[in-house]
Design goal:
single chain; binds pyridoxal-5'-phosphate
């Protein structure tokens, strides 16, 4: 038996407090392959949480590409190299025509930070809109748009937060276009409020599937209405695809679901399947204009190793048909969860998009009172039964599942059977 407590104490002593760990009994992982993770005591876990290793843990083609390039050359990006260009070509081919330039960085936070600068330069504005239950990263500028953790010093007067488009606990029982209008009107109000304070809008940043907010079923037409307001005020729409990108939703990009094409898209987490690489894809004129105003250089972003890894990830997603798999297995999982909903009153709502699911737990289906305690109990009980998952949402009551894209129907059966057993015991 490894001494988990010893590791926890060592971590606290060396890294300091406030380094979050999952689960009441933290897991000490030592190995992974495909959808499986193994701990130091020889226990095996079905990974239903990690979107970063999108092609499966330690995929041999990704590991092979990394080792081969690392054993040949790795430099910063002020020399010529084919890898960044080959990758840029393949990546941009996955986007709608207008989105034809890319800048490469290392983390989702960096990508969003750069996106904010591009928005500022192109709009001439300083005002930003985000939702009231989100997270976009940890740089000083991006933390201003992350409502889950209040930044040191508080929020600037150029930030406005709007309600995320919740259709399950919707105001006045509204739905569809009427509900979309209510939420989109908040954006108009936010823009007016900025203008009343002499602040011009630079843009709105949103995850196109509102993943951190709780993965709502987005009211019809919301995105179109919201972004029309943003554009009318001269701002840009930044789609943060750090969670929703690379096939997660059963489509290449989360924004495809609404059909509203962003001006700027930011990428991260699954882009390197664990290797730190991120990107900003933008309409050419926006990125070019930004680059004429400010030199952007990133020592590690886009280096030959990162690009070899990112290219291997794209190739595996294509060659193994993982986008289609996310759509097909995703539908299957959703059906399983709906069956569970018919047996367990605590499941108020089941939502999903490809291989990304939210199970909204309630104390009472009538009042929809969020059941954060139950969510916590279930996440911990599932960990002891060998299934890793987590929870999200404004009320911390939504079970969050987001397995590697190679998740199979057999994996789904095991997940659903284990969840059934655990819920029956709660
Ligand atoms: C939607 C979203 N954007 C950006 C980030 C920040 O990415 P990173 O941790 O790579 O800086 C996160 C991280 O959780 C995220 O969920």
């Amino acid at each position: 038996m490894t001494n988990v407590q010893e590791l926890v104490e060592r971590r606290e002593r060396l890294l300091g407090p406030g380094n979050p760990l999952f689960y009441d009994a933290p897991v000490h992982l030592v190995r992974g392959e495909g959808v499986w993770l193994h701990d130091a005591d020889g226990n095996k876990y079905l990974d239903c949480y990690n979107n970063v290793p999108c092609v499966g843990h330690c995929h041999p083609r990704v590991v092979g590409a990394l080792c081969a390039q690392a054993g040949t050359l790795n430099t910063h990006t002020r020399y010529l190299h084919e890898n960044i260009l080959d990758y840029a070509e393949c990546l941009l081919n996955k986007f709608d025509d207008g989105l034809d330039r890319v800048a490469i960085a290392c983390t989702g936070s960096e990508a969003n930070d750069l996106a904010l600068r591009i928005a500022r330069v192109n709009s001439g504005g300083e005002g930003f809109i985000c939702t009231n239950a989100t997270y976009h990263g940890n740089t000083t500028a991006v933390a201003q748009l992350s409502s889950i953790f209040e930044p040191v010093g508080g929020y600037g007067d150029n930030i406005r937060m709007v309600s995320w488009p919740d259709s399950y606990r919707a105001a006045d029982g509204l739905e569809g276009e009427a509900l979309a209008d209510v939420y989109a009107d908040e954006i108009e109000t936010a823009i007016n409020s900025l203008e009343a304070n002499g602040i011009k809008l630079a843009g709105m940043i949103a995850c196109p599937i509102f993943a951190n907010e709780g993965l709502p079923n987005i009211p019809d037409g919301y995105m179109r209405k919201a972004i029309d307001y943003v554009h009318a005020a001269g701002g840009v729409y930044i789609a943060d695809e750090v969670q929703s990108g690379f096939g997660r939703t059963g489509r290449w990009w989360g924004y495809e679901e609404s059909g509203v094409i962003p001006d700027i898209v930011t990428l991260g987490k699954p882009m390197g399947a664990g290797h730190p690489v991120s990107g900003v894809v933008a309409r050419g004129e926006l990125l070019d204009n930004y680059r004429r105003h400010e030199m952007y250089f990133n020592t590690f972003g886009g280096n030959p190793v990162s690009c070899a890894v990112a290219m291997a990830v794209l190739d595996v997603i294509d060659d193994e048909g993982l986008v289609a798999n996310a759509a097909e297995v995703g539908d299957y999982v959703l059906e399983k969860f709906k069956e569970l909903q018919s047996r367990h009153d605590m499941i108020g709502d089941v939502r999903g998009s490809g291989l990304f699911f939210g199970i909204d737990l309630v104390n009472d289906r009538e009042t929809k009172e969020p059941a954060a305690d139950k969510a916590r109990t279930i996440v911990n009980a599932m960990r002891h039964k060998g299934v890793l998952m987590s929870k999200i949402g404004e009320h911390d009551n939504v079970l969050k599942l987001r397995p590697p894209l190679c998740f199979s129907k057999d994996n789904a059966d095991f997940l659903a059977a284990t969840l059934d057993e655990v819920m029956a015991a709660v």
